[in-house]
Amino acid sequence: MDMMDTERPNRLLIPLNKCRHKTLYATWACEDERHGYEKCQYDDYMRRMKQLSAQKKAAAEAADEE
What we know:
The protein is mostly helical.
């Protein structure tokens, strides 16, 4: 797995934490940053689950051929 693949959500976490610190963790102040971070986390999770599904399918097909 490429290192950049695992750092996708993390690149958005730094600006989110800076915003949180600047606004004293006001929950309404950093909604755009938080939404972007959470969406990126979700997209990353879905990408990893699709990869896992493809790996399992390939393993099952390989086992069927034997």
